[in-house]
Amino acid sequence: MPNDTTITRRALLSCAAWSGVAAISPAFGAADAPYPTKPVTWVIPFAPGGATGRLSLLVCEQLSLRLGQPFVLDHRPGGGGNLATRSVANAAPDGYTLLATSTANIINAARAVPPGPDGTGDIIPVAGMARMPLLLLVNKELQVKTLADFLAHARANPGKLSVGSAGPGTVQFASAELFRTLGGITWSIVDYRGSGPALTDLASGHIHAMFDNTASALELLRSGKVRALAVSTRERSQAFPELPAVAEVLPAFETSGFYGVAAPRGTPKPIVDLLNREINAALTDPAIIRQFAEIGATPISGDPGIYAATYRAEIMHWRKVVQASAKN
């Protein structure tokens, strides 16, 4: 299984600088050691270069500073996020293995037959990170300038366009399927082990288009290697006000990326509560607020119960999307 473990220099320095930070990590009882007392593995279900990794890096740097231990990014791509999710579900429920969740977890739960009561299975929601729009991207050689041009081109060339995705069950895949369904078009979807490799092929002209998160696509957009035609959210994005919403042409279209953190079921509540508080606090850091705004991401905060309820609501939304796509 591919594995790319990343820890930032700032995270390492923060660990050294905060070696005496035990007061920040409350003891859970006279017989219990404070948490965390060693590095925490933060599993990312996709290859480096995607939005999940970028958001995780920002949050983990803050957590390393606040809690005095490194939060180590561990990329485990494959299976549309399922491989990493299963590995975390099977890990010891002690707070030292966490999962960066994305819309892929939500969609996989929405596709489950029969559906579970909350779609989380053997992981439990801990805290939110962000919600962000996707962009409809095309390679610079494709002779379309607007969303309407692209839709007309796709309809006039059935089966000839190739569209990238981060893997089956991901928000990129589901957005492409919903666009296909509502637009009455046909195209081929090419699955990758994350959005990073898909974007590379889009920029090099190996595929024609893809939906991807604003965080992942920003550098390629700035360099002019790809073009953005629209945003996936119901309304236009403040980060990209010049781009129309897909819903302006296909009124029923609406998708967005939804990112958070989960832990193995059975993780002690005091640890879950501590992580939730610290992640919520990290999201108020001015640097994170600024960097989230640059990519159109909106922080998600709230206690574990509120976040779990939002998680379940997302599953119900995506279940309708999955059912609509399955009919066509």
UniProtKB/TrEMBL annotation:
Tell me yes or no: is Glycoprotein among this UniProt entry's keywords: no
Q: Which residues are the signal sequence here? A: 1-30
What UniProt keywords are attached to this protein's entry? Signal
| Gene3D superfamilies for the chain | Bordetella uptake gene, domain 1, Periplasmic binding protein-like II
Among SUPFAM superfamilies, the record links this protein to: Periplasmic binding protein-like II
Record Pfam families: TctC (PF03401)
Which superkingdom is the protein from? Bacteria
Q: Which residues form a coiled coil?
A: none
Q: Which family does it belong to?
A: Belongs to the UPF0065 (bug) family.
Return the protein name: Tripartite tricarboxylate transporter substrate binding protein
Task: State the organism named in the record.
Answer: Bradyrhizobium denitrificans
